[in-house]
Request: fold
Amino acid sequence: MPSSLVKIRSARAPAKPVLSKPKQNLLGLSRAGLERFFLEQGEQRFRAEQILKWIHQQGVKDFAAMTNLSMALRAKLEEIAEITLPEVAGEQLSRDGTRKWLLRVDPQNSIEMVFIPENGRGTLCVSSQAGCALNCAFCATARQGFGRNLSSAEVIGQLWLARQLLAETTEAPSITNVVLMGMGEPLLNFEAVAHALELMIDDCAWGLAKRRVTVSTAGLVPGIKRLAERCPVSLAVSLHAPDDALRNQLVPVNRSYPIKELLAACREYVADDRRARITFEYVMLDGVNDSALQAKALARLLEGIPAKVNLIPFNPFPGAEFQCSRQAQIDRFREILSAAGLTTITRRPRGQDIAAACGRLEGDIAPRSQRIARLRLTETNHQPAPGVMT
Ligand code: SAH
Reply:
């Protein structure tokens, strides 16, 4: 045997195991993505609509049950695709009817979603990231740092799971509104969030009106501009201060996108829609941003912008450096804004006994400590957990 052949043989790498392609999770694909997926499979475009309806309207995730697809296509989908959801790791019910769920998205990261029933409406508050990188001074989520972006499947999967979980309750309420006000900054996870929004407003999927879907941002100006072009749902902006010096401290991302730039982007966002208004959120922090002078400054700042203002009583959490403004101070602040012609409401804190209120969502990313134990409910599914009472 020629020696060269021996050499070649001995140098040959060991046979690689045949790796099967990971399955495509169809849950997070919007109409355009699904159409591309089916065309790539040599299937017709209209399959996208069929599967959107199965997944998002019927709540079906088993391909075998999708009876208007041919047997052959169903078998093929079993092989190359899947519909997978985050795992529900805990549930809490507040005295006021608010429900909070802990969802595990991977072994290291969990997120929270909250359902708030109110006057015939059912608002689902969903997370866009595990943790948050923005470090707002008054927010509990900031304390745990940033875990990772959620995929579009993990964002829309929250609606899918919530609908199923709510259907199992005695009241079986519907989700009429969705707010991206859970954990994370939605505009820092733009693509995934945009796909999920497209699904929320698609008539073959969730069919929600644009004004019933709200993206809340700490003020990422480029993201606001992109959202205006891509999917102009309702916009809420977490303002919290009437001047840059204070806002730089409370919402550090203001150092990159100061108030003037932010408000210019807001004006532009609603410029083409006479009915649209920006919601400005303003957390009431005792002795920090709640004076009459600050209310007047805020009113001047928002002059000419189609706006409404939500005053959010600060929700304290262990280790927080702030206190909530006194009620009289909140009322005075609201009156000054109203007198200046701004529609202003004071948000009623919801789900306080289960730490589900604004800025209290902590999910569970490193450090894991006892948080998961605190949040995971075993025997107290239908009562507020004593361990998390505030
Ligand atoms: N990152 C986005 C969305 C998540 S926060 C944003 O900043 O808008 C949702 C809302 O809760 C924001 O207005 C946020 O500023 C507010 N919030 C955060 N911590 C709070 C707290 N402890 N009490 C009251 N509101 C809080």
About this structure: The chain is about 35% helix and 20% strand. Residues 24-82 form a domain with the DNA polymerase; domain 1 fold (CATH 1.10.150.530).
